[in-house]
Amino acid sequence: MPFLPEVQFGAYLVYSPQGTSQTSKWTKGICSLVKQDGLGQMGAPPKVVRMIPYLVRRLSGKIADTPLTDLFADQPVLVPAPRSSPVKPDSLYPTRLICDQLVANGLGLETRILLERIAAVPKAAFSRPEDRPTLQMHYDSLRVTGELLEPRSILLVDDVVTKGTMLLASATRLQEALPRTRIRVFALIRTMSHVEIERIEEICVGKIEQRGERGVRVP
Amino acid sequence: MTHEFTPEELLGLLNEVEKRRSPKTLYVAGDKSLFEIHPRVSVVGSRKASPDGLKRAAKISRLLVERGAVVVSGLAEGIDAAAHKAAIEAGGKTIGVIGTPLDRSYPKSNAVLQQLMMQEHAVVSQFPSGYPTMPKSFPIRNATMALIVSASVIVEAGESSGALSQGWEALRLGRMLFIMESVVNNQSLKWPKEMLGYGAQVLANDNFEAFIEALPSGDLSLDALFA
To answer: What's B33's DSSP letter?
Structure first.
């Protein structure tokens, strides 16, 4: 099957990998904490919050009247995006935690693990652009697994989306196995390269398109 | 003076995976506030390290200290001692995670370094005074070290090194794990390829900055960010 030419996507927060302003640096901190299911502090006296539940709770309070409501409107089954490598049992799985929190906040029907990684691919953050995995590399390293009763709608959920190549390859794998299911993607955070961030909360919807060997996110 | 903590008292709330995999108690001598500094990065490896390995451990420690990280290691001979000493010489802070109770040292040759760190830095053990030290105590402490840090760097390690326990634990906990390029290129070793297959990354000169950038920092203001 050829790759899907495009997939609709939505995202909640933004982060700047190269930004040097205080806010940009803080957005990098949020990104690291989400990936490690870490903690933050807020308020006076400081109260400790776990980052993923905190962010999803904030999102659920803000989502009404934003374009993101459409992604969740048909009560999609939430599918955690796979990690960049296979995982040992009892390992941390941040995208699953995000899915579970979304469901707990009424966003999505249930979490279902339908994709697994059978071989590691290089992490984009630590690779030169030309060494980042292609659609084909992602596709070959992924396998559809688990309960394949065809849901009406699936939302593939990622923690951080850069270009979206992995998500487009993952959506292709799912569409192949579930031809009648509507598949869209959501990321808690999207990268904004070479800009300074003014506001971390920048809800957006757009699409990830195939361009040559990789995906491109718009916006 | 030794203080006794639960892991949550020392490290903050743990997530579900961390709770399942953490020791019940941590005994700390020295500056407890070092456990509140981010990032904490572990630099570990072989007791019988090569001269190049020792130099690499010292260099990484210095670079981490320059960027405000606390260097964490196991107070063993070789790579561990080189990492601690370089952090201290660079004016930074360092934490030792040991496989004996705090009132004992292994190896004895690091007893002076351990004493210094218990006064001016911090040393932590999960083993109470009087607890017998066994060979398995050391890989167990390596797994605990993975919990204490946000990233681990394996500088050099053979197939039976305790650093491998730390590597696998770091991967389970979703922490960053880096293996030095020189180790990955050593064709006689199987473990680096296995760990790369489960998400470890290669640390080389050209991605060190990206590694530093990806570490969580402590100066995050949620109030300002979400105002």
So the answer is: G
B222 touches chain A (CB under 8 A): yes
Closest residue, chain B, to A41 (C-alpha): B222
Q: Work out the minimum CA distance from B103 to partner chain A, whole angstroms.
A: 32
- At A219, which amino acid appears? P
C-alpha span between B4 and A8 (Å, rounded): 52
CATH of A6-218, one of 2.60.40, 3.40.50, 3.30.870, 3.30.450: 3.40.50
**Using one digit for the tens of pLDDT, what is the confidence trace for B152-192?**
999 999 999 999 999 999 999 999 999 999 999 999 999 99
d(CA A34, CA B177): 17
ipTM: 0.87
Spans of all domains in chain A = 6-218
Nearest Cα to A11, choosing from A25, A31, A26, A29? A31
Could you read off the pLDDT of B122-144 as tens digits, one per residue?
999 999 999 999 999 999 999 99
Q: Name the residue type at position B48.
A: K
Instruction: Look at B211 and A126 and tell me if their CB atoms are within 8 Å.
Output: yes
